[in-house]
């Protein structure tokens, strides 16, 4: 079953243009992750949810039509017929525009409800002069929804950025495991040939038989190292496959695909002018923008709480006209109107003052956390850049050491062939060379991981 899945996976990889030469490049791998990983798709849904919340908040300003018809008839008498239809248009500035039509008939109408035979048209509105003049719940929700919509985009970037970092670390671990295994394979081949040659020389009396035992022990150690590296590679490959998916949430396997050889990897060089960009990277960091948006949401909430301290003062006015044709400025009569006023205020305002106090201290708490977050983010970027620059220097030094150990081994090998060296020294130089290769791969991989951390801190993915 696993073999069938692997074959299908390879076919799918070839269809999407990955692994044509059996090498899964780092950039190709990241492209596959960002386009098809379930977390990446889930992050895109956050944006859609944010858009939905914004649409919902804008709905508070939608115009509304209404109609209400009430009739009463009892024992062949029409008690009353009340028709009340109209519209309401909320505006951003707290003014509600209202208009409508009333028509009432019947034997037992309340006198104040009487209308002309053709009904009565009205047009006017209401405004809050106290609480709700500068901001109200509806306007506050819409402002917050806009910021929440922006936050959903920032949260999407954060999720994808974290996903890219984790995927990058797993890729370079796979890269290290694969190249370590290659080195141990080559080392085992050398040990097998050496054991075979020394055994033949010992049989002809050219070498002591104790050298055969020494070379056999070295051969067994190389087999053990290869077995351990193969297990490590298998586990790292499986960890990497967690990040590889095809369209439709189909998991992929990478059997038959390999990372690049370490000798073909060029370590990216940090630029000198990067230090001058740290403040810009900090200011544009999504986590900073996210916390600043949350800070603005808290300010909106505080402004609303301050508005709630004010008394409620609402003025309503409607002009009246018995005929629709009269709704023009030529026939308009200012004496036909209906108006009203509403004033109310709690005596102690304990609830409102309590909510205001809570919002005020929440804002102060968030402001302090924002300052701390900015400094921490700036420090993390600086640290990551310093680490990248340090690994760049370490890798250059390690390359020199690696070349020196190779030269020592080749010189010792030449002396051994001439009979001027011992098997002990040859194995010692060979182990030094292998360890230098393993150490170089480790330093190179750590450096590439640190470069991935720098890209994560500065959102360069």
Describe the structure.
With 461 residues, the protein is α+β, with helices and mostly antiparallel strands. It has two domains: 2-36 and 139-298 and 360-458, Up-down Bundle (Outer membrane efflux proteins (OEP)); 63-91 and 95-131 and 312-348, no CATH class. The chain is built from nine helices and eight strands. The protein has helices spanning 2-15, 26-36, 38-58, 137-203, 209-241, 278-283, 286-307, 350-417, 423-458; strands at 64-74, 77-90, 95-105, 120-128, 245-246, 250-251, 312-321, 337-344. The strands form two sheets. The chain has a six-stranded antiparallel β-sheet, with no helix packed on it. The chain has a two-stranded antiparallel ribbon with strand order 5-6. Strand 5 (245-246) and strand 6 (250-251) form a beta hairpin. Helix 2 packs antiparallel against helix 4, helix 3 (38-58) packs antiparallel against helix 4 (137-203) and helix 4 (137-203) runs antiparallel to helix 9 (423-458). It is elongated and about 135 Å long. Residues 1-20 have low confidence and may be disordered.
The counted number of beta strands is: 8
Query: CATH homologous superfamily of the largest domain, by name?
Result: Outer membrane efflux proteins (OEP)
Total domains, how many? 2
* Morphology: elongated
- Strand arrangement within the widest β-sheet reads 1-2-3-4-7-8
Proportion in helices: 55-70%
Number of helical regions: 9
Q: In a nutshell, what does this entry contain?
A:
About 60% of the residues lie in helices and about 15% in strands.
């Amino acid at each position: 079953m696993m073999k069938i899945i692997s074959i299908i996976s390879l076919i799918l990889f070839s269809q999407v243009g990955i692994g044509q030469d059996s090498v899964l490049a780092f950039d190709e791998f990241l492209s596959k992750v960002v386009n098809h990983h379930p977390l990446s798709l889930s992050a895109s849904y956050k944006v859609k949810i944010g858009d939905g919340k914004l649409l919902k908040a804008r709905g508070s300003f939608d115009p509304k039509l209404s109609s209400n018809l009430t009739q009463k008839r009892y024992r062949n008498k029409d008690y009353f017929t009340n028709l009340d239809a109209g519209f309401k248009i909320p505006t951003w500035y707290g003014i509600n525009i209202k208009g409508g039509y009333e028509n009432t008939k019947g034997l037992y109408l309340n006198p104040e409800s009487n209308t002309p035979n053709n009904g009565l048209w009205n047009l006017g509105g209401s405004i809050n002069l106290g609480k709700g003049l500068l901001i109200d719940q509806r306007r506050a929700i819409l402002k917050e929804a806009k910021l929440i919509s922006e936050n959903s985009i920032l949260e999407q970037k954060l999720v994808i950025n974290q996903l890219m970092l984790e995927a990058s670390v797993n890729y370079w671990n796979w890269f290290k495991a694969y190249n370590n295994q290659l080195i141990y394979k080559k080392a085992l081949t050398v040990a097998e040939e050496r054991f075979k040659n020394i055994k033949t020389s010992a049989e002809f009396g050219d070498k002591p038989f104790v050298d055969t035992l020494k070379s056999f022990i070295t051969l067994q150690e190389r087999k053990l190292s290869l077995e351990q590296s193969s297990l490590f590679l298998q586990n790292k490959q499986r960890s990497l496959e967690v990040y590889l998916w095809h369209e439709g949430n189909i998991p992929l396997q990478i059997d038959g695909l390999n990372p690049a050889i370490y000798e073909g990897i060029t370590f990216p060089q940090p630029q000198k002018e990067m230090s001058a960009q740290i403040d810009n990277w900090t200011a544009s960091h999504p986590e900073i923008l996210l916390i600043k948006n949350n800070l603005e949401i808290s300010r909106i909430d505080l402004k609303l709480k301050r508005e709630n301290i004010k008394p409620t003062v609402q003025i309503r006015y409607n002009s009246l006209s018995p005929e629709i044709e009269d709704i023009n400025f030529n026939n308009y009569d200012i004496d036909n109107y209906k108006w009203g006023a509403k004033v109310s205020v709690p005596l102690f305002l304990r609830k409102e003052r309590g909510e205001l106090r809570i919002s005020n201290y929440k804002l102060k708490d968030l402001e302090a956390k924002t300052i701390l977050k900015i400094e921490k983010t700036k420090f993390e970027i600086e640290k990551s850049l310093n680490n990248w620059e340090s690994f760049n220097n370490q890798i250059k030094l390690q390359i020199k050491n690696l070349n020196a150990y190779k030269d020592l081994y080749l010189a010792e090998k030449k002396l051994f062939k001439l009979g001027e060296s011992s098997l002990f020294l040859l194995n010692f130089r060979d182990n030094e060379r292998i360890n230098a290769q393993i150490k170089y791969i480790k330093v190179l991989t750590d450096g590439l991981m640190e470069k991935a951390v720098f890209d994560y801190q500065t959102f360069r993915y």
